[in-house]
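Please, structure for the following, as tokens.
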Amino acid sequence: MIGAVAGDIIGSVYERWPIKTKDFHLFDPRCTFTDDSVLTIAVANAITSGSSYQDAIRKFGRQYPNAGYGGSFFGWLFSDNPQPYNSWGNGSAMRVSPVGFAFHDEDTVIKEAERTAEITHNHPEGIKGAQATASAIFLAKSGVDKASIREKIAAKFGYDLSRTVDGIRPQYSFDISCQGTVPEAIIAFLDSTSFEDAIRNAISLGGDSDTLACITGGIAEAFYKEIPSKILREVKTRLTKDLWSLTEHFYRKYGIPEIVEQLDRLDDG
């Protein structure tokens, strides 16, 4: 899930000023974590601690109230009686990546992804976006090749994954819907040659950059099983100590071994 957090941080500066190129400075001085990272780490904490997804998300959201939440979510976050609000927004997909890493069979991943989404995003598209993202991570983590990931996700969720990043980019614009974000984020991964290239693909589409890169980053991490050390160091620096500590705790239980080894080397350094 560090891949998702990295994508969020790198993409944060381009959310309001989208770009249409892969040629950009990876970590602008203004880059920061947003609601995507906070809620991703909240879902991870729910899994490691055994708390409910709703309780964890409300707890972390209230601890970081200025992370950039949408209006409906913000109202839910501080409501005395929080109820799902039939959202089809991409917020359900951007926070789900820990599910794809933590659970060990596809049926459980699908079920848990729905549970993370339905507390707010109970519209069918909101649930589907979370499930498709978590499923892609699970398949990538399990060693499934890109062609098979493309085929399986397209067949199960009905997304058009036959497109390319170069084909999408010219006409694509800012879109907060799951149906207008998740397929494009998956394609950004499918068209990539490395973790960093996947992030650059996602941001270069010129849409909801931090969320696109967050979704893409989780899948790319699972597939490539490596995040450049320079990116890991930047993520550690830009998260609060509490958020980084909780992230490391999740990795000690559920992380990809190769990336756990990278984190060990990072701590030793």
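The chain has a mean pLDDT of 96. The CA atoms of residues 156 and 179 lie 14 Å apart.
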